[in-house]
Design a protein that fits this description.
By secondary structure, this protein is of the alpha+beta class. The chain has a domain at 77-121 and 192-301: Glutaredoxin (3-Layer(aba) Sandwich). It contains eleven helices and four strands, in the order ααβααβααααααββα. Strands 2-1-3-4 form a four-stranded mixed beta sheet. Strand 3 (278-281) and strand 4 form a beta hairpin. Helix 6 packs across helix 9 (243-252). The longest helix is centred in the C-terminal third of the chain and has 17 residues, at 254-270. The chain is globular and about 55 Å long. The termini are far apart.
Length: 325
């Protein structure tokens, strides 16, 4: 398959096509035909979610805490710390913590379950049909994130660029325009559900961190002209996975695959949160790549130990690794 885009990824193309609220993204030969996506709305936060349980306003006694839940038995390779990481393939901050997560998984006795959820842009759409999802309520957020993530990439020494195309079909130009940040509805999103379902298939196969390392780096770290054309190649680099088998499984079992991201969303909700990346230990959430050091300190408090022999997937040691083991 050609590495080139099947349509011109130019400012003129975006200006001509993203201006219309109901515009349809051109057909991309890299994307296979898949069953429709079910409703994408966020689950209700459970009443007993972690943040509700430890909520303290300085006056009323919290239901739990304030001492964090903590493990007491030794951490070994046979009995590692259990960690959930909620992430999004559209989140640059989820990408920017990838190397640290891979290094942690490879070199320490943790059972790291990387769980993909749908990006916020396609979760707030009232059942996944109808008109475009609408503009975010924070007009400053995206311009700041565009600049901030470039700085963080330099700070952490990881390759970074904003992806072409964006995994979400969304109006991002001109800044400040009334239609700025307008999101097209789920049924007009060609990329995100394809790659999320591939990630859910990888999770079913016990290869979620391997998938995340490959595809998130492809989208945000590789300087390729059209990342969708490379998904199959990168997917097939994961030991034990085959792209064609995965697509066939998704086409024949969409309910099993969609149940994975739905369960992941419930685990995120049980933590009392909706953001990514969200690192969770003992039910306690740590939100944002800038909370990794704090998260790591909590792992140390729970008896974190190093592996005798690193395991795949491998990466070089991050430029900025927290003090400790």
């Amino acid at each position: 398959m050609s590495n080139q885009s099947p349509f011109p990824l130019t400012p003129e193309f975006y200006d001509a096509n993203l201006r219309e609220v109901d515009a349809t993204w051109p057909t991309d030969p890299a994307v296979p035909e898949l069953p429709p996506i079910p409703a994408t709305d966020d689950p209700e936060l459970p009443a007993d979610n972690f943040l509700n349980q430890v909520f303290w306003d300085g006056l009323h006694t919290p239901k739990e805490g304030p001492t964090p839940r903590q493990r007491t038995r030794p951490v070994t390779e046979e009995d590692p710390l259990k960690i959930d990481v909620i992430a999004s393939l559209r989140s640059p901050y989820s990408y920017l913590v990838t190397q640290r997560l891979v290094w942690l998984n490879s070199n320490y006795n943790v059972d790291l379950n990387l769980r993909l959820v749908l990006p916020e842009a396609v979760r707030m759409t009232k059942g996944g049909s109808g008109k475009a999802g609408g503009a975010f309520a924070r007009p400053y957020f995206l311009p700041n994130a565009q600049w901030d993530t470039c700085m963080l990439g330099r700070f952490h020494g990881v390759p970074f660029k904003h992806p072409t195309p964006d995994p979400i079909w969304q109006n991002l130009w001109p800044v400040g325009d009334e239609k700025f940040m307008y999101v097209h509805p789920p049924e007009k999103q060609p990329y995100i559900f394809w790659i999320v379902r591939l990630g859910c298939y990888a999770q079913i196969k016990g290869k979620s961190i391997e998938f995340y390392n490959q595809i998130q780096t492809l989208i945000w770290g590789d300087h390729v002209p059209h990342w969708p054309a490379h998904v199959k190649e990168h997917f097939n680099r994961i030991d034990g996975l085959d792209y064609d088998e995965a697509i066939k499984f998704i086409q024949e079992n969409p309910e099993k695959v969609d149940a994975v991201w739905q369960e992941n969303a419930m685990i995120q909700a049980q933590a009392g949160h909706g953001g990514v990346p969200l690192m969770i230990i003992n039910g306690e959430p740590f939100f944002g790549e800038d909370r990794f050091d704090h998260f790591f300190s909590r792992l140390l408090e729970n008896g974190l130990t190093q592996r005798q022999t690193p395991c795949a997937p491998f990466t070089s040691k991050p430029r900025r690794w927290p003090d400790g083991l």
